[in-house]
Amino acid sequence: MTHEELEESVPLYAAGALDRTERQALEAHLLSGCASCHSALKDYQSVAALLPLGLSPTRPPRSLKATIMAGRNPGAIPAEAAPKEPARPSLEPGEWMNHLFPPVAPARSLSLPWVVGLATLLIVGVVGYLAWNFAAQRSVDTSIIQQLEASLQEKSVKLASLHREVGDQTKALAELRNEMQQRMNEAAETKEQLMQREAELEEARVQLSQRGGARSVGTPQDELATLLRIPDVKAVSLTGSDMAKRAAGFLLYDSRTQKVWLYSVNLPECPTGTTYQLWAIHDKPVSIGTFHMDTGETAHLLVKKAPSFTAAKTFAVSLEPSGGRQQPTGPMYLLSRS
Amino acid sequence: MDKPSRHATSMIDPSLLARVVKGDQQAFSQLYDHSNTLLFTLAVRILGNHEEAAELLQDVYLEVWRKVSRYDVGRGTPVAWLLTLTRSRALDRLRARAARGYRATNSLEAGTAGQVVDLGPSPFETQADQELRIAVGAAVAGLPQAQQQAIELAYYEGLSHAEIAARLNQPLGTVKTRIKLGMSKLRDGLQQWWNHGDLQ
User: Fold this and answer.
1) Of 1.20.920, 2.40.30, 2.40.128, 2.60.40, which CATH number belongs to A220-336?
2) Judging by DSSP bridges, how do beta strands A234-240 and A248-254 pair with one another?
3) Which candidate in A94, A135, A278, A299 could, as Cys together with A288 as Cys, close a disulfide (CB 3.0–4.6 Å)?
């Protein structure tokens, strides 16, 4: 391939559109140190790495993080951590893109080409020796040649059977790996389902406790939507303190049903043994209720039955030890504008 | 006290990976928080299926935990590294699925009915990520349909130019030209994003 052809294949390489032979040809060229192709590749790899950033984002199930954190063995710090790969001429960043994580399948049969290579080398060696022997000692007893031929044949047969054996073993290994992968997938799937059920159960429990046996119908979201349409509902907005500048909250109080709704976003996760507590402040703070922000949670809806506090002017959320306190003791996270 | 950890996915700090190399679990958790939506989005785009994408992400993050020491900052950004790993593993799955004769349910509509929904413009997406998403989305959408299609078949379905030509029933040279022109336009249109250092 000419340099021009190779250079033209750089954008195709970055998009992942080259077949194996072309890829290898370009990689060999890059290894030879062509600066212009290196520079072009760097640009095109940056384009390729940007492509997924343009997709409309889809969030994974919330339970996935827990599954991943639990599935990893905390003790087993990177087994391959210590020795880095011996220095090879580095191809930045194209080479690692394709070689750091080679497709799983080809890696399994690494031993096969090696054996075939050795066999070829051996046969070439023996044949070479025979040729030399024949030329040099034409007159030598042909029985020696016959002997060598016989031994060569024997070796070829042995090699063929070795070759077959390696092939069989590779196949068996691949099958075992597939089976293991399948089992692992099944186990992971079951685990995932279990976690999902647990999450659903938890949600149902929360809803049940929030409703407290009252005759409310529909989900809290439905009820909240209805609430927003009532003109004399008290609405207070809360902003994040220095502890959580990006946090915000929105509080609604319906004196008819004596219910308080607090929708808070971007509050940090509660450290173990703590909980958030909502206060209505008139002369002194009165607790309305507590809620907890779990890992990965970004928004929370707290619904509480509360006595009348129409006189209260200020509302606040503080971080308290689990179970809450009679009076605020911890730092404030959300405060209403007074 | 943990502060809210909403940072731009496109700006993952390489030092975070350095902490993961040392076995820092909190750093690993943060790395997950920063990158999970992007990697899941890519996996769903390639596999067309939320359940399988979630399975894939488990494999990918475990591999990240085990192989993070191989990450070399000189060869690309953390995001590019994570995306390359995810894409490579997702395409492995896609090919394995094809080899088993299983027809891909590549209909994204089918997957969105579950509890996971497309967010659209999300209040939890950082402004930097949102701007970048809009810029890349616009650059891709600005390509002629044929160029866009060829690039997407290569990138998201792992097809070679010969396979794309066969799939689209077009001459090989035409397909190559489409990919080259498309990539070149994207490079010209998006160069500012890595020249600004956002992705470096």
Assistant:
1) 2.60.40
2) antiparallel
3) A278
The domain segmentation of chain A, as residue ranges, is 1-52+91-101, 111-191, 220-336
Distance from CA of A213 to the nearest CA of B (A): 27
Indicate the residue type of A244.
A
Which chain A residue shows the shortest CA-CA distance from B50? A60
Give the tens place of pLDDT for each residue, B62-106.
Answer: 988 888 877 777 767 888 889 999 999 999 999 888 887 655 444
And the tokens for A308?
């009348």
What integer pLDDT is reported at residue A173 of this predicted model? 92
CA distance B48 to A187: 22
Computed over every residue of chain A, the mean pLDDT equals: 79
Could you tell me the CA-to-CA distances from A321 to A272, A274, B34, B67, B87 in Å, in that order? 9, 4, 29, 39, 44
Only one residue has tokens 């190779």, namely: A6
* B17 vs A264: CA distance, rounded Å: 31
Least confident of A45-49, A95-99, A288-292, B143-147: A95-99
- Contact (CB<8Å) A92/B9: no
Q: Which of A12, A47, A100 has the CB atom closest to B186's CB atom? A: A47
A247 contacts A334 by C-beta, under 8 angstroms: yes
Is B116 close to A47, i.e. CB distance below 8 A? no
Query: B96-130, pLDDT tens digit by residue?
Result: 888 876 554 444 433 333 333 344 455 556 778 88
Q: Which residues of A touch B199 (CB under 8 A)?
A: 46, 49-50
Domains of chain B: 7-107 (1.10.1740.10), 125-200 (1.10.10.10)
Cα distances (Å, whole numbers) of residue B98 to A15, B38, B94:
21, 25, 6
Q: Six-digit token pair at A160?
A: 């063929």
What is the tens place of the pLDDT at every residue in A72-119? 765 444 444 333 333 333 343 444 444 444 444 444 444 566 677 788
At A77 the pLDDT is: 43
